[in-house]
Fold this protein.
Amino acid sequence: MIKVEVDMTKCQHYGQCVFEAPDIFRLNADDKLEYTAEADDSERANIEAAVDVCPMQAIRIVE
Amino acid sequence: MNHPVVIVGASMGGLRTAESLRRFGYLGPITVIGEETHKPYNRPPLSKEVLANEVTHEAVAFEERDATADVNWVLGTRAVSADFEHNIVTDSDGQVHPYAALVISTGLRSRRLNVPNGELTGRHALRTLEDAIALRAELVQGKNVVIVGGGFIGCEVAATAVKLGCNVTVVHNAAHPMLRPLGSELAEQMQLRHEAMGVTFKLKRTVTDLLGVSHVEGVKLDDETVLHCDVLIEAIGSHANVEWLSGNEIDRNDGILVDSAMRVMQRSGHAVSNVFAIGDVARFANPIFDQEARRVEHWNIPTETAKRAASVIAAYLNKSDAYPAILDEPFKPVPSFWSDQYDNHLLAFGLLGLADKATLVAGDISGDCVFEYSRGDQLVGVCGIGMRSVVQSYRAKFI
Ligand SMILES: Cc1cc2nc3c(=O)[nH]c(=O)nc-3n(C[C@H](O)[C@H](O)[C@H](O)COP(=O)(O)OP(=O)(O)OC[C@H]3O[C@@H](n4cnc5c(N)ncnc54)[C@H](O)[C@@H]3O)c2cc1C
Ligand code: SF4
């Protein structure tokens, strides 16, 4: 399992992460980010890609 | 022993290349040569939230990953020449670095005003962490700040300086700030929002002279207006860092021309199979729009181009059977950028600057809104203030 953490004080809800790992990140009806904090190892590449594209560098993979 | 992949430019593009090489299965040595003394860091906060608070490397540094723990960082050192024939790079310490593949990720530097009295102190630009530290120290309550250039960086700094209590005037050479990318309706609206926060604009004006004895005390505009200032910020665009590549037969007018595999093109029209350019310095065609090669100064491009180059390099150096197929893969990343100015959070996809028409398609111009950008009947971009889901939904149209 991988643990994902988003620093919500940094996140500006740009939703770039959603394109890279749609099973983990989504924007809710109010356009705010929601995410699943625990993911299967098979998601690692997608989550790393999401980390890369987050403009606020708000996403962290906590091992 | 195999020669390393040498990456010149220890920036976002350089870092993403190193990481991606590992991800694509290249296990050999990697050397990164960088002129700045820091490990790679994120530039956008330097005009926004970090400039408004405390500017430190820690606040902007990219997180380091285990996969790149064995990268050889040669920092505080400039590459002074590259010889594509003999596969070597020479640095400013006289060190010679032979390479198996070379990645050029040398980005841009700020363009500066070319006016009389240029030797005055108190002139700022904003590209590096040091620039931001020096500027932050001067953005103190009550100071008169003149920003030359009303592009995105100039406008973001204006917003930050206002937040810090400065009196801000922006001198811009067009009818509205950010006019070229945003189009007149949205650009004018952004101007109004800045004015409501207290920013003064001097539009369709340029600076012709600097005033002051040793420190800059003012600027003179082309209509003879004099603006008094304590701090002068020059945000008038940038130059590509390509001079160090002289001597190679390549096209380096406004960035380095590359093919769809990010391989540097020789003037003969052939690509160099082991030399790549990525990020802000790379000029490439994006078939989403047309066949014309352009530099794209959007934050997602260093990452996209780094991944593309790394996949090709890994296949090339690993002598993979898939190499020809990888070379032929199309490369059409969707450019994306954002900008934060006060509570206005802009998000865009595409290349707005190509448009000849911008149309309001959702929301209200005085509040949250979305504009569609088109060239003839081709959709080339979308930009919104707020309304994320609407802006997001457009991205699929470019893929
Ligand atoms: C203040 C600021 C705010 C920004 N805000 C946004 C934003 O909100 N949204 C957005 O989409 N984009 C933004 N950008 C643009 C974005 O930051 C760039 O697109 C990105 O930094 C480009 O990365 P790069 O790796 O291609 O090049 P750069 O970041 O320019 O890095 C190039 C590196 O190469 C080094 N170098 C140069 N020549 C040599 C040499 N000969 N030898 C060794 N090293 C060399 C340089 O010192 C530098 O460290 C902003 C940029 C700035 C400066
Ligand atoms: S990309 Fe970053 S800023 Fe944007 S929604 Fe995801 S976590 Fe938030």
